[in-house]
Amino acid sequence: MDKNIILIGLDGGATKISGWTINVDPGTLSFTLGDTNVQKEYRIYKAYRPDFRAVDIKKQLRGFNSGIVIPTETEKVQAQAYTQACIDVLKEIAAKNPGRPVLAGLGMPGLKMSDQRGIAVLLNGPRIPDYCQTVESAISKLGIKLVVPFQRIGSDADYCGIGEEYSVAGSFRGVASAYYLGGGTGTADALKIDGELIPFDKTKDWLAKSWELQNDMGKSLERYASAGGIQSIYSDYSGIAVDDLNRAQIFPDLILERAVAGEQDAVETFRDISKYLAKLIFERMRTIFSGWKQDFSLMNPSREGLSRNHHFTGTLLDRIIFGQRLGVLLEASKSTTQLWQPLLDNLTDLVFLSAENQTFKDHYLRDGQFNPDLIVNTALREAPAIGAGIDAYLYYKGLI
Questions:
Q1: What is the tens place of the pLDDT at every residue in 280-334?
Q2: Mode of pairing for the β-strands spanning 319-323 and 178-183
Q3: Within 13 A of 50's CA, how many CA atoms are on the CB side?
Q4: Which of 59-73, 127-141, 162-176, 296-310 has the lowest mean pLDDT?
Q5: 59 and 187 part of one domain
Q6: Three-state helix/strand/coil letters over 28-68
Q7: Does 213 share its domain with 358?
Q8: CB contact at 8 A, 188 and 157
Q9: In-domain check, residue 10
Q10: Residue 389, domain extent
């Protein structure tokens, strides 16, 4: 790649978009975060409406299935904040690197248009079918040259996997098979089997995404891995509304501190997290090894059931990776009696008492305990952003 080109990874979420410059070593095909980061929150824009309510999800899905997505006027206004935030991130990064052409990758939540360049379904935001076209047109008028148009809007989950595989700090590197669970605003699942990244959209007949699974209380497993979910559990125990927790800046790290100090509501919060996070990881290990055993039910009752058979039967995971804020939280808990050790204890019980064969048990247990060396709390910062930039680079070079 021309050394004059700026490689940028853009990670859009529910409240903001973040852009990072990315360094690449073409010889080793390895990547690191650059030294430039620009973030823009949607709420700073005049078009943003804090009281925005998304169109009914069933109506959105009908439009998606028909291929005809027509945003409402309210969505069009809200979309201006989303796209302008992206434009401004690119503008500021380009201004720090004047005259240099830009190669950018973009990740956003939601279901994408058939051309992958727009957003067709978004649970808590506006549909933006012309997202890429709008951004490209605006930055062109600003004199910013794109090396190539945006190839697609990717998912943060896939980009976490790509980042973990190709980044110098990535935890997929050096292992044949691994599962990644990232916990931020929501959850991101990524999978590598026999040296190949396997997008979860290609496993949907036999392996569900974590948010699609529900436990015996009817709660999505996303609740036990995401920052917002952890807050909601604590809210239920403490009686403090989530909005009030946010205003008081009581986030998972502070809830952990309260649990360590012995506050009962926080202790019970992390008891639940340790229990169901272990159950989720065990389900991944077991389903990959020997097929779906209905450890959980599906959130969508009309979703087609999962198959017990798949092509990767017999696979044992070399590594289980926790990323984003969930990984940070687990790492912080290692010096306490909360979360980390209870998670290992629960995993020990699940593996030891399972009906899986001795090969399975011998792999995951060491001296009668779950092997902690199989778990990595990834050091990779901003996995979705670096994954987006890597994806753009690989497309540009014709490597994917």
A1: 999 999 999 999 999 999 988 777 889 999 999 999 999 999 999 999 999 999 9
A2: parallel
A3: 3
A4: 296-310
A5: no
A6: CCEEEEEEEEEEEEHHHCCCCCCCCCCCCHHHHHHHHHHCC
A7: yes
A8: yes
A9: yes
A10: 6-155+384-396
